Amino acid sequence: xxxxxxxxxxxxxxxxxxxxxxxxxxxxxxxxxxxxxxxxxxxxxxxxxxxxxxxxxxxxxxxxxxxxxxxxxxxxxxxxxxxxxxxxxxxxxxxxxxxxxxxxxxxxxxx
Length: 111
Fold this sequence. Notes:
The chain is mainly beta. The protein has one helix at residues 26-31, and strands at 4-7, 10-12, 18-24, 34-39, 46-51, 57-59, 67-72, 77-82, 91-97, 100-101, 105-109.
């Protein structure tokens, strides 16, 4: 059974940092790119970042130079390091691969 489980969300002040984790079942992790998307209040879901099995990365322009995606092959986990957070980064963040999605983790950036 394919599983993607996110963790690490929370409340942070503007300018702060958070690291999200996505634990993936082995079959998904080993053979597919893993991605992060987010959906803010009243907004459509949007792509944030992705990482291939070989480690190539891609980012939305809105998060480039602030967010970093990485993968730990020993732990079957993908991370999203988020720095210099802004109120507009407030959203539910989802980890996904192909047709499989996690349940999401809430990130709130507010003073």
